[in-house]
Amino acid sequence: MSASTVELEAAAFRRLLAHLNQRSDVQNIDLMITSGFCRNCLADWYREAAAERDIDLSKDAAREHVYGMPFAEWKRLHQKDATPEQLAAFERAQKEHG
After folding, report:
1. Largest CA distance in the chain
2. pLDDT interval class at 84 (50, 70, 90)
3. 74 and 80 Cβ atoms separated by less than 8 Å
4. Range 24-30 contact pairs with CB under 8 angstroms and sequence separation of 24 or more
5. In sequence order, which residues have a C-beta less than 8 Å from that of residue 32 and are 6 or more positions away?
6. Which pLDDT value is given to residue 51?
7. Of the candidates 71, 81, 76, 69, which has an alpha carbon nearest to the alpha carbon of residue 29?
8. pLDDT tens by residue, 40-81
9. Does the pLDDT of residue 89 top 70, yes or no?
10. How far is CA 56 from CA 17, 63, 76, 89, 95, in A?
11. Can you tell me the distance from the alpha carbon of 46 to that of 48, in angstroms, rounded to the nearest whole number?
């Protein structure tokens, strides 16, 4: 993979994180229902990429990178309880794409 490709992919990832941070109204469960991944998934993938490169990165540090703040703070400020409708849609999505 060329250095340009890595730079472009990194820029796209940073833009995705910025976009998700601007759209804190979009709940993780909604992302999971429609796309099959959420902010927590991105943090897990980021941490896995670090581990593949022998970089020690905690779950909390990875989440803070993705959320732009400590996860507990983001959760307190932005996360709402999932509605019964969201939970049902999530279950359907899991069965369809699971």
Report:
1. 46
2. very high
3. no
4. 24/74, 24/77, 24/78, 25/78, 27/79, 27/80, 27/82, 27/86, 28/79, 29/82, 29/86, 29/87, 29/90, 30/86
5. 38, 90, 93
6. 98
7. 81
8. 999 999 999 999 999 999 999 999 999 999 999 999 999 999
9. yes
10. 21, 14, 27, 36, 34
11. 5
pLDDT on residue 1: 86
How far is it, in rounded angstroms, from Cα 74 to Cα 32? Answer: 18
Token digits of residue 3: 């250095």
Q: Is the pLDDT of residue 98 over 70?
A: no
The reported pTM is 0.90
Which 3 state secondary structure label does DSSP give 70? coil
**Tokens linked to 33:** 């229902």
Q: pLDDT at position 97, please?
A: 85
Please, are residues 93 and 33 in contact by the beta-carbon 8 Å criterion?
A: yes
